[in-house]
Amino acid sequence: MAAARAARRQVTPRHFLRNDAMSRKIAFIGLGIMGKPMAVNLVNAGHHVTGFNLEQSAIDALVAAGGHGATSIAEAVKDAEVVITMVPADPHVEQVILGEGGVLENVKAGTLVIDMSSITPQTSIKVEAAAKAQGVRTLDAPVSGGEAGAIEAVLSIMVGGEAADFAEAKPLFDALGTTVIHVGPAGAGQTVKAANQLIVAINIQAVAEAVVFLENAGVDLPAALDVLAGGLAGSTVLNRKKANMVNREFAPGFRIDLHHKDMGIVTSAARAVDAPLPLGAAVAQLVASARANGDGSLDHSALLRGVERLAGREVK
């Protein structure tokens, strides 16, 4: 009886459920820290995924997981029903989607192009206009959750674009995340992502300052962070990043270089709508300082190192 009950409790995770009737032909451009696990999760959900990346090792990893590889963007997208791009910044999006040999030169009319990069709202609107002129549909769908969220398929996905296109893409998003919300027209997803990055950066900085304060006071740091996580000070940032700070392990889940780029996006976007960012402006400077001190390739939890420098500690 116990064995039977245990068998009934073994439920296949939703992102591993396969339905060949719902399978889509997807081209995935950009198989980096976030893109690779996202593409693999789409394969696990039963989709035909063809990936392209500048580094062959990432393509090989997708193929090993059951996907397919391409030697160019043109090859990846030629038969795709949906194209997903996940690249670092605005210039990369413009090159990959709008540039010579890019997505718009090679997809068929009616294709749905979903950019999941974190870029400015203005670039998303520019991409949408260029695509629309060719009969191609677009969504801007940046994500939050970092590498762990991408691997575990628990990302938060904020989507801008037409409601009908969002409805079509929703099953794909559900294979990648647990919070999937249509937030408005083209560019709206990127605006919400900018707000997300503002909150995350301020939160990480606050946790970093608390860590140095607690250590200087001689408190049991792991115990202190555990109790803080259970109260009003608790947050996803604290839960996910406290081990990094306690152990001083800053392997990149989301690099300071990328968060620096995102703080530039949010400060620019806020200026355009006359929104003050007094804390955001200060944290943007601290992120820039971290880069100037050589921490750009580290995880954004390494903002702790900047607080340690201010405290007069030797930072190795």
List keywords for this structure.
316 residues; nine-stranded mixed β-sheet; globular; alpha/beta; 15 helices; 53% helix; disordered N terminus
Structure in a nutshell:
By secondary structure, the chain is an alpha/beta fold. The chain has helices at residues 2-9, 35-44, 56-64, 73-77, 90-98, 103-106, 121-133, 146-152, 163-174, 188-216, 221-229, 236-247, 256-272, 278-292, 303-310; strands at residues 25-29, 48-52, 68-69, 82-85, 112-115, 137-140, 143-144, 155-161, 177-184.
Number of helices: 15
Strand content: 5-15%
**Radius of gyration over all CA atoms, rounded:** 21 Å
Give the overall pLDDT as a whole number.
93
Verbal overview:
The protein is built from 15 helices and 9 strands. It has 316 residues and is of the alpha/beta class. Strands 1, 2, 3, 4, 5, 6, 7, 8 and 9 form a 9-stranded mixed sheet that branches. It starts with a helix and ends in a 6-residue tail after the last helix. Mean pLDDT is 93; it is low at 1-18.
What layout of secondary structure does this protein have?
Elements: H1 2-9, E1 25-29, H2 35-44, E2 48-52, H3 56-64, E3 68-69, H4 73-77, E4 82-85, H5 90-98, H6 103-106, E5 112-115, H7 121-133, E6 137-140, E7 143-144, H8 146-152, E8 155-161, H9 163-174, E9 177-184, H10 188-216, H11 221-229, H12 236-247, H13 256-272, H14 278-292, H15 303-310
Parallel strand pairs: 1-2, 1-4, 2-3, 4-5, 5-6, 8-9
Antiparallel strand pairs: 6-8, 7-8
